[in-house]
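Supplementary material to the annual report.
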Amino acid sequence: MKLTMTPVAYAALAIAVITSPLMAQAQSDAQSKGLEIAKEAEARDLGWQGSKSKLQMVLQNRHGSKTTRELRRQSLEVTDEKLGDKSLVIFDSPRDIKGTALLSHTKVLDPDDQWLFLPALKRVKRISSANKSGPFVGSEFAFEDLLAQEVGKYEYAFLKEEKVDGQDCFVVRRIPRYKNSGYKKQIVWWDKAEYRVQKIEFYDRKDSLLKTLTYGGYKKYAEKYWRPDSMNMVNHQNGKQTLLQFQEWELGLKLTDSAFTPAKLKRAR
Amino acid sequence: MESETKAPAVIRYAEWVIARRWLVFFASLGVVALLAVGIKDVRLAQNYRVFFAGENPDLKAFDAIEHIYTTNDNVVFLVQPPEGEHVFTERTLSLVRDLTEDSWQIPFSQRVDSLSNFQHTWAQGDDLIVEDLVPDGDITEAIAARADRVSASEPIIARRLITDDRRTTAVNVRVVLPGKDSTELKQAITHIRGMVAEYREKYPDHTFHSSGVIPANTAFAEAPERDMPFVMPLLFAALVLATTILLRSIVSTVGMFAVIFCSVLVTLGVVGLLGWMLDPASASAPTIVLTLAVADSIHILITFLDQLRSGHSRREALIESLRLNAMPVFLTSVTTAIAFLSLNLSESPPYRLLGNVTAGGVMFAWAFSMTLLPAFLAILPASSGGRLTLSTRWAIATGEWVIAHSRPLAIVVALFSVGLIAGMGRLTISDKFWQYFDESMEFRRSADFAVDTIGGLFVNSYSIDSGESQGICDPEFLGKLEEFTEWLRARPGVAHVRSFADTMKRLNKNMHGDDESYYRLPDSQELASQYLLLYELSLPYGLDLNDEIDIDKRSVRVDVTYGNVATSVLAVDGELSQTWLREKGLEVIGPSGTALMFTNITHRNLWAMVIGGTLGLSLIALVLFLVFRDVRLGFLSLMPNLTPALMAFGVWGYVEGTIGFAISVVGPLSLGIIVDDTVHFLSKYNRARRRGDDAADSLRYAFRHAGSAIFVTTIVLSIGFAMLGLSVFRVTSYMGVLTSLTIACAFIADFLLLPALLLAFDKGDRTAPGSDVVETTAHSAESETPEGAVS
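Predicted assembly:
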């Protein structure tokens, strides 16, 4: 019952002993490179202050039948590292929900603050929920997919470089730090030229590919900030998809903080 | 006399086989080797849906609902704390919470619903609070008490996730296999079984079960895997024993086994080469082929051994046996194949497959009986032991006895048969799909546990169309939906109704500071739509409303769960519900559900059996008429073919009482087998009659020359089909036992009833007018075996 080791096993052990610090080193290199890329992407998008956009949301089930929603969105840049941006979404169609407005004060690691104005009830309701990953109005987007991706939300690891649609990209894995996130990890493709997100893959809690988001038609606004014309989210598990089509983008707007308070929500039009 | 060569082709063939025995032998084995390679490609079906054809209206409704919403495939974990405890203890709730969390790790899982992650909503002023019913952190008494209170009053949970006695709770996991490779089911079930084992170890005083579609599909896939290595060897052993005793010739037994072994190999090989998928029903085909192949060989072997005993050389005996048996063996193979092909009328594809595979196998068996068997017998020296086989002596004695006591026998047998057939009145039709499996199967035990506790196996689903986009928030539609929900809840047997109307009422209450008087539907479409928007915004990953609302917000799905009711309730309630909804001007898809599908297909298959049986019987009557050229004989022959199946069902009524899917297969299937006895018996009888013997002497002749083989095949076939009774798949085991019974009853009918009928009705001289009629029949050329030579 004596444990014997073959020369091959010794060699393997030796290699393991020598390489494990190297591998740990490689790992931390990958982490810092990933973080750097995310930081650079964030840095290049700093200073847009306020934005307005108008968009159409096209929901499609796996048999191709479609339904459309129209909404407008205003965002206010918040630079505090622990806080995310403030966002106001106003629904224009379908008719039944016209005028409904959703205000969110997003947090990086805590549940967001959310208020909803219901015109039919003429009241503002605060929603207290730890959930960020549920489907946004029945679409394949979670609310967290639509928000600005603050660096502090994730842990990063650079994976490789790869071409997407002819553009050289960094491929970075990021793992959500928010406990109630619906995702185990995301893989992000940032183009090397402008650090714009080109594609994101979302993996569910059991680490299976859940959705792929692709960005299309980036244009520059306010001479500096790149925004897409479309974002298409495909759910691989249920075969559904949702296309966001932006009709208007305005950036660099001077929006007041008071426009993003629950008290003003009733008058948001 | 017809002793001159009447079938030179057969004789020339026999002589050729003997001369080229090595060539025939190796060519046969070569064909076997060539086709048997397909066996490695034989696949097993992994979904209960194979039981339904594409055009099945219930499957269409089922698919339509799954198309609009989500797939129903799931696994349900059932958890029961130890005796005397309810679910709402710290320990059990934390178990449920862990189980819920772990369930997200099941491969291909998409959604988990349990007591712990139920999204509890309540109001605090103008705040709407949404959280897990059992949130993270310590489970305090207050949390446990809240969970208890909410789950008793919340119509979405009560009786769906928790029983009334609070003793059993369910964790429902939607698991949707992408269908990209054949290991998916295995991956999912392996993980599920691992979880159950782990929790059983961690909580030894709790009871755990896993039910639902994934375990059910696993049972369907595993039943043949369980049966094949078990039933087949036993059957082989039983057949070896029986034939060795009955034939008393080792060489003959070995030859016969070469034939049946090759027949089964080739049958399975061809199934694999054609890419057909076997399922628990069609997986019994090889066993049936194996059994039927014995029958073909027996006739050839018994004549061969008889001839040897009469002092003929091996060569003469072989030629004679082929000459006598080539035609009847071919005919009986064809009638058997026809009967099996009539299973194509079944509503259920596995039975069509069973019919086609067996029909093919029967013809392979025929081919090997005519090639491999004679070549084998020509190669190896066989001895006859010098005495008549046990069965032949027995058959002769029985014949004498039957002829001597034909009248009292006929009366006794007739009364006996009527008595047996009366037992059919005791039969009840069981069509509960989980009862397709016996208690040795994990799924059956889990399903039984579910039936005794939380139910969930009887679900009727409906998709109700509001008629327009966003229409589900229309107060008028919601009003009708609520009314329908309440109407359903008042119906006997209904345990749970999942309805979107309840969600709306709860939200309206929450939006009005949890004021109970607002537990009613919102009164405007805008309000309802905006509540829905709010609610959807608050739901976590995986717990969306996609499984009860379509993306256009036009249709809602209503699931009605029944307690342990008679399956007929599902169909009756389904029709009443349709009528109710249509009277209110609502379009509906459904009812649909697994239990309902199986119930309906059982009943539809009953019709298929009646039609298949009638068709089979007519075809066989036609064949008999063509063989005998005698209407009276053809008509008399129907009697012993019609009654045995009825007698067997009667016996089943007394002994077992319930019958399901199997009933629809036994009739056509057994018909094809038992008619063989009649063909062999009547052909011998007819031969004697035509050469001028009276009925009694012709009967003696028939008993002497066919009785032995009929006796042996009856025993062999009865054993063979009885072995199917060991299957863990109840449909197959019932079918096997019933067919076995039918064959035994057919033996009684052929040996005891038919002779009396012939003695009573077949009087007068039937000497053949000319030899031309006789010579076209199968047995015209029967040689004059010197009867005295056997002693």
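Confidence is low (pLDDT under 50) at residues 1-7, 770-791 of chain B.
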